[in-house]
User: What shape does this take?
Amino acid sequence: MSNTLKAALLAMALAIAGTGRAETTDISFYFPIAVGGPVAKSISALAADFEKSHPDIRVKPIYTGTYKDSIVKALTAHKSGTPPDTAVLFAVDMYTLIDANAIVPFDDLVANADDVAWLRGFYPALMTNSRAAGQTWGIPFQRSTILLYWNKELFKQAGLDPERPPGNWAEMADYARKLTRRDAVGNTTQWGVQIPSSGFPYWLFQGLATGNGAELMNAAGTKTYFDKPAVVEALQYWVNLSREQKVHPPGIVEWGTTPNDFLSGRTAMIWTTSGNLGNLKAKAGFDFGVGMLPGNKRFGSPTGGGNFYVFRKSSPAQQKAAFRFIQWMVAPERTARWGIDSGYIAVSPAAWETGAMKSYVADFPQAAVARDQLPQAVAELSTHENQRVTRALNAGLAAALTGAKTAQQALKDAQAEAERILLPYQR
Assistant: This one.
C-alpha cells in the first residue's frame, strides 16, 4: 500500500471518527436528591443503561438536593443561560416555570403519531398538574398520593379489626381515641393518629379539604379558596384532633419524623406520601395496612411528586435528546421498577401490566392502593407564584394548629395574602 493511499485512509478514518463525535449530544439532567445514596446510584445506573442503548446521547445526572433547592437552582441556571436540558421538579412548579419562560411544552417535541399516543398514555389524574392552557408541560415520573398507614398489631391491642381502617372522619377520630395511650401520670405514650404539619403542610391539609368536598384553587392557578366554609371546617377538624380530643400530637408535627414515629410505635396511624411505602416496607417490624384517606363528604387525595421538564434555552438537538431520554425513563418496564423500588406510583396503566408489577402486587397488595386512589384524586395546590401562595397557607395552618389564631381567622388571613399575590394574574 502506498504512503499516499495510507494517508488517504487515515484521513477518512479521522473524518468518520470526528463526525461520530460531532453527532453525540450531551444533556444535563437535574434530579432532586443529594449526592450519594441508593437513589443516586439507581438514577446513575439508569442513565448509564440509557447511554448503552443510545450511544449518540450522553446524560450527565446532577443531584440538586431537595425539591425546593432544585427549583431555585434550575431557575438560576436558566437566567444565567446555562439551564439543565431536562429536570425532575415538583409538578406544582409548572406555573412558575411557565411564567419564567423556562420550559417548552411537550406538544412541540412530539414528532409522530406514536409520540402523540405516548403523551396520552399516563393516568389522567397525574396530568392535572402537568397541563395548562391546552398544552402539556410536564411528564409524570415520581408521583404520589397521600395514604393512611396503620399498625395492625396496635389495632388488635385496642380491640379494633386490624383489616378494617377508618372509613370516614368520625371513625378516624373514634379509632384514634381507642388507640391513644397514656401512662399513670397522664403523659401520652402512643398517639392515635398523626398528620405532619411541617415540610408540606398545605399538601396534607389538602387531603382533609378534598375529603370535605372543598377545592383550594381554580384550574388556571389564578384564584384560591382558602376561606370557604368547607375549607375552614377541614382545618377545624385537624385542630380538634389535638386540642379537643387529644388523640393527635399538639402543635407542629414534623414531616421527617412521622414515619419514624410510626415505625417505633409512637403513633398507630399516620398520613404520609405513598413515596414512603418502600421505606416503611423495608423497616417495619410489624404488619401494617395501607388505605385510602378517610373522607367526610367524599374520598380523595391530592396527587404529589415530580415531573420531567425540558428547558427552553437548550439547543434543538439537546431538547430532542432530552425528549428521547424522558420517553425511555417512563417506559412501562422502567416506571414499574421505579415504583417497586421507591413506592411512587407507576405512572401509566401499561406499567401495571408488566410481569414485574403484577408479581409485586400479588405479593404486596398494598402497593396498588395509591394507584386505586387516583380516580378520586385531585390536582395538588398549584398557582402562579406558587411558593409564595403556599407559604401564606402554610403560615395560616401553623397559626391554627399552634393556637395562635382560630381556624377561620387563619384561613381568612391566608386568603387575603393569596389574593394580593395573585392580583397581577386576574383577567
In short: The chain is about 45% helix and 15% strand.
